[in-house]
């Protein structure tokens, strides 16, 4: 059962253990350019001032991909200690690794106070976060945190769930529906204005992404709380066009061919 806690006029999500979810726009990982066959050095832009964490709480950073992982100590909330560049080399994980930033209570208790998982900026998947949880008998779902990017939550009970549902050929079964669900949320629930003149902070990156799949501007959200039938039809038709064109890309066609090959064997 979720609770909410306000810190400096902003609401942070707190779960039943008291752990806060750190927003992705407060933790940004970038990779320094390097040759394809050389390990990358990462930089972390971290802003935790508004969360109210204890000053002596420890900051820990980990990068992981499959069974491989690396970790770093990042000092405390009061005194962050950024490791030197030669210690921030990804030599045990690939550039596609995800990063987990954790805030841990001091005095040896090890209690987790806050956490976030992110991808380095520059990857297309940074438009949507991915989390693994126990979803019972549900394979996956989309969540929409306040003022943050959508989250694809996948069921940790499924073996190698990231390799199959997210990155593998099986992803072709859900990617179109994921995009449709996100666009429905943006235009019908959040009533986001996705045009060039005034993109919202939350949806501006999606605007640049969607331009690849349509020449028509996104429908403007209704000015009133009531959505007229003709507005609904226009929004649905635009979403259908974007999803259809997205599924016609070579990357999706390739995943579908691979999936069909796997099923045929």
How would you sum up this structure, described in words?
With 265 residues, this protein is an alpha+beta fold. It has 2 domains: 3-121, Immunoglobulin-like; 123-265, no CATH class. It is built from 5 helices and 12 strands. The protein has helices spanning 161-166, 175-189, 204-210, 229-247, 250-264; strands spanning 3-7, 10-14, 20-21, 27-31, 42-46, 58-65, 68-76, 98-104, 112-118, 129-133, 140-143, 151-155. The chain has a 5-stranded mixed β-sheet, with no helix packed on it. It has a 3-stranded mixed β-sheet with strand order 10-12-11. Strand 8 and strand 9 form a beta hairpin. Helix 2 packs antiparallel against helix 4 (229-247). The chain is globular, with a radius of gyration of 20 Å.
């Amino acid at each position: 059962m979720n609770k909410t806690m306000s810190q400096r006029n902003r609401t942070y999500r707190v779960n039943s253990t008291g752990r806060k979810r750190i927003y992705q726009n407060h933790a940004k990982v970038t990779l320094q350019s390097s040759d394809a066959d050389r390990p990358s050095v990462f930089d972390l832009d971290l802003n935790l001032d508004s969360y109210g964490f204890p000053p002596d709480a420890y900051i820990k950073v980990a990068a992981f991909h499959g069974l491989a992982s690396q970790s770093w100590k990042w000092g405390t909330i009061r005194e962050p200690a950024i490791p030197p560049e030669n210690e921030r080399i990804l030599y045990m994980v690939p550039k596609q690794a995800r990063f987990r930033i954790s805030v841990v209570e001091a005095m040896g208790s090890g209690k987790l106070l806050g956490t976030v998982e992110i991808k380095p900026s520059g990857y297309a998947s940074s438009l949507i976060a991915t989390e693994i949880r126990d979803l019972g008998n549900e394979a996956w779902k989309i969540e929409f945190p306040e003022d943050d990017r959508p989250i694809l939550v996948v069921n940790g009970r499924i073996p190698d769930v990231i390799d199959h549902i997210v990155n593998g050929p099986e992803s072709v079964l859900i990617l179109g529906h994921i995009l449709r669900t996100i666009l429905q949320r943006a235009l019908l629930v959040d009533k986001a204005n996705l045009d060039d003149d005034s993109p919202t902070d939350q949806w501006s990156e999606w605007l640049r992404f969607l331009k690849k799949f349509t020449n028509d501007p996104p429908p403007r959200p209704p000015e009133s709380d009531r959505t007229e039938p003709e507005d609904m039809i226009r929004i649905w038709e635009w979403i259908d066009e974007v999803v259809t064109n997205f599924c016609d890309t070579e990357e999706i066609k390739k995943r579908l061919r691979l999936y069909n090959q796997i099923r045929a064997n």
